[in-house]
User: What shape does this take?
Amino acid sequence: MGKGKDLFGHFNDLAKQKGPGSEESHYAGILFQALLMVGERKTFELLEEADEKGKKLKLEYPAETKKTPEHPSGIVLV
Assistant: This one.
């Protein structure tokens, strides 16, 4: 879990450097949302898996809300 925590911190540091509106800031927001949705342990595990596979985390939305996504239903690797 240490590596996942380090990755989380790394992406947040990048977001601070690049500033609001940047791709890095957007991704840090996704990570924070994941933290709220599935908790620290699962988020860090998913970050480690994403890092190993060269992927990123993405919020998943129910099919019926694709036009106006307001409440994510899960986290997926892309």
